[in-house]
Every structure is written in C-alpha cells, then in structure tokens.
Amino acid sequence: MDPEFALVADGLLAVLLLATLVYVARLNRRLGQIRDARQEFEALIARFAEATAQADRSIAGVKAAAAAEGKELQATIDRSRGLRDDLAFLADKANGLADQLEAAIGRARGAVAARVPPAATDEKPAPVRRPASGKAPGQPPRENRAAFRGEPLSDGERDLLRALSSVR
Questions:
Q1: Confidence band of 144 (pLDDT split at 50, 70, 90)
Q2: Cα separation of the two ends of the chain
Q3: Helix (H) or strand (E) holding 94
Q4: Cβ(107)–Cβ(118) below 8 Å
Q5: Which of 62, 115, 120, 150 has the smallest C-beta neighbourhood within 10 Å, fewest atoms?
C-alpha cells in the first residue's frame, strides 16, 4: 500500500472520528436534557396525581354535603306540603263558616225587617222575648247544632252564636 494512501485514509478516519465525537457530545447533551425533562415530567405527573386525588376527595365531600342538604330540603318540602294542606283545610273551613255567617246575617236581617213596621224605623226595636228555656225562637238547641255538624262547638263558634243571638 502506498504510504500516502494510508496517510490520507488515516486522516479521513481521524476526521470521521472527530465528527463522531462532536456528534456523540451533542447527543450526550441532548440525552442529559431529556433526562432532566423526564425528571421534571415525573414531578409534574406526581403533582397532577396528588391534585387529582385531592379533587376526588373534594368531590366526595361536596356530594356528601349535597346529599345532606338535599335531605334537609326534602324534609322542609314535606313539612311545607303538610302546612299547605292544613292551610287549605282551614281556608275551606273558614269559607264554610263565612257562608254560614252570611246566611245567618241574612236571615237575621230578614227577620228584623219583617218584625219592624216601616213607620217605626226611628224607634228601637222591641227586645225579643225568650221562652222559659232561654233560647231564641227558631233556634235549635245546642245539642242539635253540635249533632248537626258532628263536632263540639269551638269558643269562636260559641261567641259567634252568642253575637247572632243578641242580634235576633
């Protein structure tokens, strides 16, 4: 072999080895960067896993609180439905009593108008005489009124009946 050719081949081999060293040095630096990035990425994944676990715990707490509030709200709704039904019953009862009162007032006005002569409107009407039993004429006995309705008279009903009796 020719010594010049060997020298050129050795020079070419040295240049190629130098290029390989430069390439390996760059590759080593990039691999180092990847290792550093991998460690940062693993730390990021660990923080993300921790945040996810905390979010799961928070969601469980929110669900528990929502369930408790839902039960309390349902209990309030149930109580309000009962109160609504009670109020509807009372309103119906009050309407019935108002109708009875209106009818009684109408009857009382009619009875008074029938008893008072037109010329004597300036004078006070004569008191209504009660029979010996103490009841106004045409008034059913207390027992009959209570039996008619099927329940005992309340204090308000007794007061109302007394007021109506005094009008007659």
A1: very low
A2: 153
A3: helix 3-115
A4: no
A5: 150
